[in-house]
Amino acid sequence: MRKTISSLAGTIPVIIFIAFWEAAARLAGNQLYPPFSTVVKEFGNLLFASGILLPNFFASFFRVIIGMLLGSGFGFSIGV
User: Fold this and answer.
1) CA atoms of 61 and 52, how far apart (whole Å)
2) How far apart are CA 67 and CA 57, in angstroms?
3) Tens digits of per-residue pLDDT, 9-25?
4) Cα(18)–Cα(80) distance, rounded to whole angstroms?
5) Neighbouring residues of 38: CB distance < 8 A, sequence distance ≥ 6
6) pTM summary value
7) Radius of gyration (C-alpha) of the chain in whole angstroms
8) So what's the pLDDT on residue 1?
9) What is the DSSP letter of 52?
10) What are the φ and ψ backbone dihedral angles of 28, each rounded to 5 degrees?
11) Contact at 8 Å (CB) between 35 and 26?
12) Angle at 18 between CA 8 and CA 51, to 5 degrees
């Protein structure tokens, strides 16, 4: 019982934030920022329908890994 309450305690603020975001965006008329539902829909479109997101994600991830390896190697050689 306590474990269930403990796990819900972490998700409730996220749900409240998403609900506030959705309501505020709809009340503002989408002029300041899009509603959460639109963001999720567009994310799904970029990820699955158009196939644009995954190649760009992997290219960026590859750059991060290369940068970490180069930085770690340089830092290790300076430190030793």
Assistant:
1) 15
2) 15
3) 888 999 999 999 999 99
4) 48
5) 25, 30
6) 0.64
7) 20
8) 65
9) -
10) -80, -10
11) yes
12) 110
